[in-house]
């Protein structure tokens, strides 16, 4: 065989080299790397330190690239130290081992999680509620969410003066976005601008601190005055979510800015995917909230929407106030009226009016469009028909949601009755009425979707902390977002359900407390909210209706203003808690920015928390556990508090409090006590619980006590 000419061989070799270089270039494209977060703890105190330069030099060292364009995504440099960058897994591993790095972890997609609810909790409209308006007007709530609709009447600045002098933020909302003296700040981390195109952030912002807007409704449903918990407070919006994702690296940037901007409280209605729980050093909300706590800022976070199974709560750090979702005394009912006069009450937010006209009822799950035209479809599927006049479905939820077509969701019993009626009655007819608000005296009940404990990270820390209204909440909305799937309507106010809705309720309560106690620390506010909560009774059997669902109980804004005693925590207490979870002194020094020495056997359950919880190693043996606590007097001098133990239903615990009387001579005085809990053979499927109540005849504060073993992951 004849050899190819030398120049042909060179040509082939050059083509091969070019091809390999192109393949290599494509393989090394930073856009193909994953986004990782590198958390480096507190900012060094030296003035000569430049976070951005340090972050760039780390990337240059690890990648071997002089230019890191496309690599560095975000630099956290205002309130704590770290960065987000596009890296390969091997590069992440090398950075994670570097001196000065706490953790390196992949950025994850987080999920977004009213007229009557504030009245239900006791915060009445106008002069019917005690307020400190001068301080309330100086209170700033930062909302990390999907943005905000600045033109909403809920955020009008009519009657507002200039922003508080402490405000250091900016209005960087993007094109055609304007802040005012109510909505004083806006930042965007998505590239879309801070304008809300989903409605979620507008809804949460107005729930926490929206103006009082009369005549708000969803097409007449729920008509009334929509308002937030602190209508005179200011709002700063931090947009971290697009329509497809809420990047955790963006959330950390929002915390970095919000802390430095000067907000007083942070509300975050976001959480991990499907109940995913991360260790604190890889949880961006826990990281941001820790540094907020150090600066005196309380973070309120939704518990998650992965219930009712146990072990699903996603917000588990003690420096975060974690909120479950529960019902109020109002529910939206959509009645089905049959031709024989029988009325069935279903759920939905149905703004369509059939004018009481009866239509033929037809039952079936696989019916062709022409068969249901001009009729009302009765279907086991949870979707409405585009062809039928209306649809009646079986209710798979415990709350009403908006439908783009006439629809009512019946309870299983009523649905089975209707199916039987349709099948047995020739030419059966009926109609679906427009939704009406129904007020009742039912005790609040935790929603089935609300994530439950126990806490998978710190097993001796009870989570969630509290529950608040989170079902069928009417609040401001974005006109850019349809109120339901395949919906062509646009609204200024809409109805949503979720722990996303309960979270801003508690943020509003925390802000309300802070207006009367501006010097209170985050832990004091959290303690006041938890220890004055309404007691929740088990609404159903099983673990889903225990303290793992609602924590200390249902928030009570008025009682929380004057708790009498509080459980205080500071940065040092949280460091001791982390020592008890086997964090090393080296890691804690990076996180806190100061020398830390972990000594002795520190038990996490002895964190001075307003609730008490302990996981036992065995179920069929005798046990004794102790909790050490200290309370601070924020009530009146010369007060005497006596303890009382209330055992919850079925509990066989023995509980002793030593001492069982606390005599407080002065305000800010601290006194300690020990709670000893003993028992044997507890139910392995349920927690055993009791309540410790301290009372001086004026104040009454309650702490749940919970002991448990391994709780199954499903109910």
Automatic annotation (TrEMBL):
Which segment of the chain is annotated as a signal peptide? 1-25
Q: Which GO terms describe its cellular component?
A: extracellular region
Keyword tags: Hydrolase, Protease, Serine protease, Signal
User: Where would I find the Inhibitor I9 domain in this sequence?
Assistant: 35-112
Active site, UniProt feature: 145 (charge relay system), 200 (charge relay system), 500 (charge relay system)
GO:BP terms for this protein? proteolysis
State the CDD domains in the record: Peptidases_S8_3
Domain (Subtilisin-like protease fibronectin type-III) spans 606-707
* Cross-referenced Pfam families: fn3_6 (PF17766), Inhibitor_I9 (PF05922), Peptidase_S8 (PF00082)
Domain of life the protein comes from:
Eukaryota
Domain annotation Peptidase S8/S53: ranges: 137-553
Hydrolase is among the record's keywords:
yes
Annotated GO molecular function terms are:
serine-type endopeptidase activity
Q: Hey, which family's this protein in?
A: Belongs to the peptidase S8 family.
PANTHER family per the UniProt record, alphabetical: PROPROTEIN CONVERTASE SUBTILISIN/KEXIN
Protein name per its UniProtKB record: Uncharacterized protein
């Amino acid at each position: 065989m004849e050899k190819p000419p030398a120049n042909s061989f060179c040509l082939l070799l050059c083509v091969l080299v070019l091809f390999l270089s192109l393949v290599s270039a494509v393989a090394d494209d930073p856009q193909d790397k994953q986004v990782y977060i590198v958390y480096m703890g507190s900012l060094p105190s030296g003035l000569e330190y430049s976070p951005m330069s340090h972050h760039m030099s780390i990337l240059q060292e690890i990648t071997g690239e002089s230019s890191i364009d496309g690599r560095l995504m975000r630099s956290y440099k205002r309130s704590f130290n770290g960065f987000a960058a596009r890296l390969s897994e091997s590069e992440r591993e090398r950075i994670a081992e570097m001196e000065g790095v706490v953790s390196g972890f992949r950025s994850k997609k987080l999920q977004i999680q009213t007229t009557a609810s504030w009245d239900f909790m006791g915060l009445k409209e106008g002069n019917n509620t005690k307020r400190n308006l001068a301080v309330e007007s100086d209170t700033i709530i930062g909302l990390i969410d999907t943005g905000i609709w600045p033109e909403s009447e809920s955020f009008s600045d009519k009657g507002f003066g200039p922003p508080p002098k402490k405000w250091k933020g900016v209005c960087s909302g993007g094109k055609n976005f304007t802040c005012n003296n109510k909505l004083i700040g806006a930042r965007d981390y998505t590239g879309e601008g801070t304008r809300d195109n989903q409605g979620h952030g507008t809804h949460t912002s107005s729930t926490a601190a929206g103006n009082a807007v009369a005549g708000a409704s969803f097409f007449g449903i729920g008509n009334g005055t929509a308002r937030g918990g602190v209508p005179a407070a200011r709002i700063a919006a931090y947009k971290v979510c697009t329509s497809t994702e809420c990047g955790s690296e963006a959330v950390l940037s929002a915390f970095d800015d919000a802390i430095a901007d000067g907000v007083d409280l942070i509300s975050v209605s976001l959480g991990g995917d499907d109940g995913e729980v991360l260790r604190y050093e890889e949880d961006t909300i826990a990281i941001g909230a820790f540094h907020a706590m150090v600066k005196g800022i309380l973070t309120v976070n939704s518990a998650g929407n992965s219930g009712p199974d146990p072990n699903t709560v996603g917000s588990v750090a003690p420096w975060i106030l974690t909120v479950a979702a529960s019902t109020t005394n109002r529910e939206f009912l959509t009645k089905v009226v049959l031709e024989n006069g029988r009325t069935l009450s279903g759920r939905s937010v149905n703004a369509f009016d059939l004018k009481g006209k009866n239509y033929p009822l037809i039952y079936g799950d696989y019916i062709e469009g022409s068969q249901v035209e001009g009729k009302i479809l009765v279907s086991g599927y949870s979707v409405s028909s585009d062809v039928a006049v209306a649809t009646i479905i079986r209710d798979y939820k415990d709350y009403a949601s908006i439908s783009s077509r006439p629809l009512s969701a019946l309870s299983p019993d009523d649905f089975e009755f209707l199916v039987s009626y349709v099948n047995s009655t020739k030419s059966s007819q009926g109609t679906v009425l427009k939704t009406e608000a129904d007020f009742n005296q039912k005790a609040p009940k935790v929603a089935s979707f609300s994530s439950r404990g126990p806490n998978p990270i710190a097993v001796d820390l009870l989570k969630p902390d509290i529950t608040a209204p989170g079902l069928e909440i009417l609040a401001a909305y974005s006109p850019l977002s349809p109120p339901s799937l395949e919906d062509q309507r646009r609204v200024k106010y809409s109805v949503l359900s979720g722990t996303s809705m309960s979270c801003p309720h508690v943020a509003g309560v925390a802000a309300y407390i802070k207006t009367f106690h501006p010097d209170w620390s985050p832990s004091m506010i959290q303690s006041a909210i938890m220890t004055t909560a309404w007691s929740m009774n088990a609404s159903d059997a099983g673990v889903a209706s225990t303290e793992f669902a609602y924590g200390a109980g249902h928030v009570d804004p008025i009682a929380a203003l004057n708790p009498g005693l509080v459980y205080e925590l500071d940065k040092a207490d949280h460091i001791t808690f982390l020592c008890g979870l086997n964090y090393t002194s080296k890691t804690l020094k990076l996180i806190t920015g100061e020398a830390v020495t972990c000594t002795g056997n520190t038990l996490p359950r002895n964190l001075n928390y307003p609730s008490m919880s302990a996981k036992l190693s065995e179920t069929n043996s005798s046990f004794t556990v102790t909790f050490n606590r200290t309370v601070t007097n924020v009530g009146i001098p010369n007060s005497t508090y006596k303890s009382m133990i209330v055992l919850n239903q079925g509990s066989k615990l023995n509980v002793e409090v030593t001492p069982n009387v606390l005599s407080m001579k002065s305000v800010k005085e601290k006194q300690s006590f020990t709670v000893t809990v003993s028992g044997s053979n507890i139910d392995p499927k349920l927690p055993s619980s009791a309540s410790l109540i301290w009372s001086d005849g004026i104040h009454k504060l309650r702490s749940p006590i919970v002991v448990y073993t391994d709780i199954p992951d499903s109910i």
